[in-house]
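User: What would this chain look like folded?
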Amino acid sequence: MVERKFPKSIRKFIRKEKARIRREVLDMKKQEELIGKLYTALEIARSGKNNKEGKSLTE
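Assistant: Here's the prediction, encoded as structure tokens.
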């Protein structure tokens, strides 16, 4: 099965958020955890479950 890519704007958002996390958090395990949470939040929002309630991607 082919995995769909995120749109260009979302990829840009992910890149900036990952850079922000890496700047602000020094612990490597914490960085990986936060980046993982970012991806899971985006996948949930992408599936449309949280967007119906009006939640933003970063909440």
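The longest helix spans residues 28-47. If you want, I can go into more detail on any region.
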